[in-house]
Amino acid sequence: MIGADVAAFIEGPLMILASTRDSAGRAYIARGSGVRFDRATGRFDVLVNASLWPEVVAHAVQGEPVAVTLVRPNDYRAYQVKGWIKDVAAVSEDEQARGRAYVERMLEVMGELGVNRVQLSHTLTDWDLVCISFVPTDLFVQTPGPGAGARLVQS
Question: For position 153, what pLDDT does the model report?
């Protein structure tokens, strides 16, 4: 589902938006605090702050859909990955450390682009994290331009 080039992209510094929806189809959006793609299993783990984004977490239920948009801030190359939630859980110590490292790295990256810590510190956090795990079913190009929104099929 996810090819090597997109998998490598996912390992870079990315801004993350995660979205779930309620039974009426109303979307809820959260800023992610880290993402990991396991090439062996094809599974995504996205970290989200439960206190800042309670609606997203409340509607993150096993078997329900999730969409995660991944954006590289220096050139705005972007993908959206959709799938079905497999698990939602409090983070492990390793995941917490990954979330902390992600936040520090992204504050550096965004600082290099002129966005300061104060502007991001209230939404880019590493506390009260939960891990939403899913298996992707669809991948879309979201880079602004003529190809935005195109479904991407990879082997």
Answer: 86
Residue keyed to tokens 């309620």: 22
pLDDT score at 131: 98
Average of pLDDT values for 81-94?
97
Whole-number Å distance between alpha carbons of 79 and 109: 19
Residues 126, 96: contact at Cβ < 8 Å?
yes
| Residue labelled with tokens 């110590």 | 93
Query: Which long-range contacts (C-beta less than 8 Å, at least 24 apart) are formed by 90-99?
Result: 90/129, 90/130, 90/131, 91/47, 91/129, 91/130, 91/131, 92/131, 95/34, 95/45, 95/47, 95/129, 95/131, 96/126, 96/129, 98/34, 98/36, 98/47, 99/33, 99/34, 99/47, 99/126, 99/129
Smallest CA-to-CA distance from 131 within 79, 78, 94, 103 is with 94
Q: pTM for the full model?
A: 0.95
End-to-end CA distance of the chain: 6
Percentage of the chain surpassing pLDDT 70?
99
User: Closest Cα partner for 19 from 8, 9, 30, 34?
Assistant: 30
